[in-house]
Sequence to fold (227 residues):
Amino acid sequence: MNTEIHYRPGNSAARVDLAPGESFTAEGGSMIAMSGDMQIETTTHKKGKGSLLKSLKRLLTGESLFLNHYTAGANGGHVWVAPTLSGDIEEVTLNQETLIVQGGSFLAAEPTVDMDMNWQGFQSMFSGESLFWISMKGSGKLLMNSFGTIYSIDVDGDFIVDTGHIVAFQETLSFKISKAGKSWISSFLGGEGLVCRFSGKGKLYCQSHNPSAFGAAMTPHLRPRRG
Fold:
């Protein structure tokens, strides 16, 4: 599996090139176009191993109920994939490690990368994030998407991120929810509210824009649907 990411960072799309017989898994509805001899299998989990329980768990993270598995024909082929929201795509190569990904940011992965649900505790609910995140484990390539640009940070100690701007983080990092300022009043009057305080050593991926804040800003300007 070889990937090329185009039109970064505002309207990213990824071209995934596959050797003959090679396959990869993508989020349902993410395909733009593909080679004519590409085969597709839709399941609720891994290719050939559909799991209703795991698909229902994935729904809790905000992901699709179904996954599409693409397999190239005798001459190889390619598939174009893109996220729903305008933004960036980041390729990460896992090496027998675990990456915790926010719901909605999984785009595609090699078959050697497994997906499961990760419980982040009730603190996530109070932060505005999902109670459940996606745990990506194994070795292989993973494509993540964001709203806006993705940028990575090598954390060694403590680091603070505004809630809604987290894309993913290595399992070696832990976080807790706290107020942004010295007091609750200053935190909310300043527009920041709650933040995630990460600690430990590992890589953290953030997005430049917050989809929830964008939706809230746009809602008053949307006309009600008539008829």
Observations:
- The chain has four helices and 15 strands.
- Residues 2-216 form a domain with the Double-stranded beta-helix fold (CATH 3.60.160.10).
